[in-house]
């Protein structure tokens, strides 16, 4: 007797037959509908979502006010191109973003569709503002898959055989305290890493040719590595000293994920330019670049943007998302979720040396797996087994890190305590099974 395939299996087979292999498959879940922190697959199975569409649904799947805003705007007009016909939702969203994410005395903004576009435009703005060509970035960084963004991205697997890359991009080590500190305490480690930064101005690139340094205050794909507070402060001072613009990539860490609208607010270190996307639109493609007005205005007319620069429907979704986040106080909820996750995982860490580190800010938590309690021996195989085991038990998870040895928690911030603990029970059970 031939076993009949499930609807999920059939859809995945159709995907394999028609979709290009280069499109990643990070999880084999399917979806018929999704609400809050629960995904219902094609076979009616309910899955707890700890991936959040790669950090896109901080406000949950299909929040009602956002869905209603989309419906309302879609009935008015779908597209005019903001370059051609100006519309209210674009202006209102820029005003809202400038209010919650102020950059100095006066802030200006621009809207586009994706995080990679935001990065591309941020670099163009910085180059025009400084009249300099070079950009410094970091190891373990991820900034997107378009040409400049891919050049800035560190992980080789994302850009294999895709060169040549954009010129005038220089990479320095990210101050990963867990991985590289050795016997140094935090202060000594930070000073060592800041010295590396200073030395780059003599050994890597003429600092007078550097337009900007771009950094994720909390790395996303790189493994949820938070930059040390004093390093970010030192980086800000270094940029000020040399007339270099500081760009902060908040695409995965923004919009309540860390307990603030942006993680730079947690650090109280202000960027000159910052980039956002993902949870800004609750799943609709919208991104933003914000910066000090005089810097943003340095870009010449027509040199930034594109046809789809802030779809009116996406703007409406973003405005409703921000208001919904305010109404539910999701910044506070992120702190609560982060404490629950961290407390449980740190308790488990005491039992198993294979859990090398539990780290993060707010609800942006990473759990790193290693061999022999050694930061230099990443255990991606163990991490993969845990992720697959969780999937089989109804928990959608993602890995991260250069060696895919970090589990990242990106659950919607509207998740109930019941579902949060249920998901953590599954995760803890799979860690015990696969380590034991």
Verbal overview:
The chain has 436 residues and is α/β, with parallel strands linked by helices. It is built from 15 helices and 16 strands. A 7-stranded mixed sheet has the order 4-10-9-8-7-5-6, with helices on both faces. Strands 11, 12, 13, 15 and 16 form a 5-stranded antiparallel sheet that branches. Helix 8 runs parallel beside helix 9. It is globular, with a radius of gyration of 22 Å. The two termini are 37 Å apart. The mean pLDDT is 96.
The overall pLDDT, averaged over residues, is: 96
**Percentage of residues in strands:** 15-25%
Largest sheet: 7 strands, mixed
What is the 3D shape?
A: globular
The number of distinct β-strands equals: 16
Can you count the helices? 15
How far apart, in Å, are the first and last alpha carbons?
A: 37 Å
Low-confidence stretches: none
Tell me the Rg in angstroms: 22 Å
- In the sheet with the most strands, the strands line up as 4-10-9-8-7-5-6
Provide the structure class.
alpha/beta
Helix content: 40-55%
